[in-house]
Amino acid sequence: MEKQLASLLQLLPQATVVGSSDKTITDITADSRTAQQGSLFICLKGATVDGHKFLPMAAAKGAVAAIVEDLPETAPEGVTLIQVADSREAMELVTPFFFDYPGKTLRMIGVTGTNGKTTTTNIIRLILRQAGYKVGLIGTINIMIDDQVTESHNTTPDVVDLQKALYGMVCAGCQYCVMEVSSHALALKRVAGIEYDCAVLTNITQDHLDYHKTMENYRDAKSLLFEHLTDGDKENKNAVFNMDDASSAIIKARTKANVLTYGKGHDNDIYPLSFTVAPKHMQLKLHTPVGEMDLELKITGEFNVYNVMGTVAAMLAEKIDKETICAVLDGFDGVPGRFQLVEAGQPYTVIVDYAHTPDGLENVLHTARSITKGKLWVVFGCGGDRDNKKRPIMGNLALQLADKIVVTSDNPRTEDPELIIDEIFTGMADVPAGKEVFRLSDRRDAIHFALAKAEPADVILIAGKGHENYQILKDKTIHFDDKEVVQEYWSDKK
């Protein structure tokens, strides 16, 4: 991929250009470490890091032009400087154009919400592949381009990385991209240049208030996906809403797209006629616009009933036939770290789940309770440098819904783990008779404690990190995988 610098400059008519515009751009990056010969380097001002400081490094690696807000005293030799008022806005304009707007070429399915995005997008990907399409996926766990998989670092990557990934999908012959769309991505315009075709709302519950400040702001950020759904020229635009979530009625009124609804009420397009939850599977009968669907699922839990209904609605909107949808759903056995059963030869049940919000923890605890014959254990913490308002709420939920609560560290980041645990404990002031609460700030020790004390009929839910294989501490990031800790414990025990 390459473009003439002069053509990029046409998108920035207010820019001041210092140097020649007669250059060929072969790449765009906002990370000086990835600059190469022919790069356009974008200097971004962040909360803690100013990209202007890295302009010399990008130039040394071969960057031939740079978008800046501030002109340096000494310009790197041979680098054309493009001064703009806002380098982020310039990036949002230039990057999709450079990659030939892949988000308008692909058919884009965006899934947003606090919980359920990963499971929903993964099922949708499998159904579309079964229907014969080449599919890309962008999500919390990874980025997939057909069968090629790379690790993901954000739920939704920044503008440059996202456009590169979408361009890679187009080059690989993909017709679809299924994408988790975070509130941050919508608010920060990381999805600039993308025309979505189908948008799914799973739910909106408390999360990311450290950034959005209020639930209204959080909801409004999610709403942007639906408000702009009919922008562009593509046909068959559909919005899918979980009508059991209070935000859906508000956002539904803001979209001009076709609407499909799901939920328990029989006034929805898709609703459950019956469902039976077992420890390792679930039977679900759905009413749908194309007739009843009788499903024997290898995933379980009421929250997965909603994930399945949202998926079915999106796939019917995309005109995928009922038989294909049912066949994939019956064979789907889950996503790593989403109510994942860990088998290590232990006499009790161990589940690892990504639940890191009040709603997410409540859902998985209810599901875990439904399969527990003995005592229900929960091992969990809360992330540092994130919404601290949810900490006592999650502590209170754990106390209400579990029998044995082990409060520990999650990703403390720059915060003191003990202080985070203190805030969780403010929601657990009165411990009812028959329940026990423990605190072990070392996550490995906390998991080992539950594994050592649990009885054969018990269930242990280890919540918060799910698929993550790392732990972010104050001064370093270490390898840490909840599932591995369980398996290693029982391997040593044997």
Concise structural overview:
Helices cover 34% and strands 22% of the residues. With 494 residues, it is of the alpha/beta class.
Topology (SSEs and partners):
Elements: E1 3-4, H1 5-9, E2 16-18, E3 24-25, E4 27-29, E5 39-42, H2 55-60, E6 65-68, E7 80-83, H3 87-98, H4 102-105, E8 107-112, H5 117-130, E9 135-138, E10 142-145, E11 148-151, H6 159-171, E12 176-180, H7 183-187, E13 198-201, H8 209-212, H9 215-227, E14 238-242, H10 246-252, E15 258-262, E16 271-277, E17 282-287, E18 293-297, H11 302-317, H12 322-331, E19 340-342, E20 349-353, H13 358-370, E21 376-380, H14 390-401, E22 404-407, H15 417-425, E23 436-439, H16 443-453, E24 459-463, E25 470-472, E26 477-479, H17 482-493
Parallel strand pairs: 4-5, 5-6, 6-7, 8-12, 8-13, 9-12, 13-14, 14-15, 20-24, 21-22, 21-24, 22-23
Antiparallel strand pairs: 1-3, 2-7, 9-10, 10-11, 16-17, 17-18, 19-20, 25-26
Helix pairs in contact: 5-11, 5-12, 13-14, 14-15, 16-17
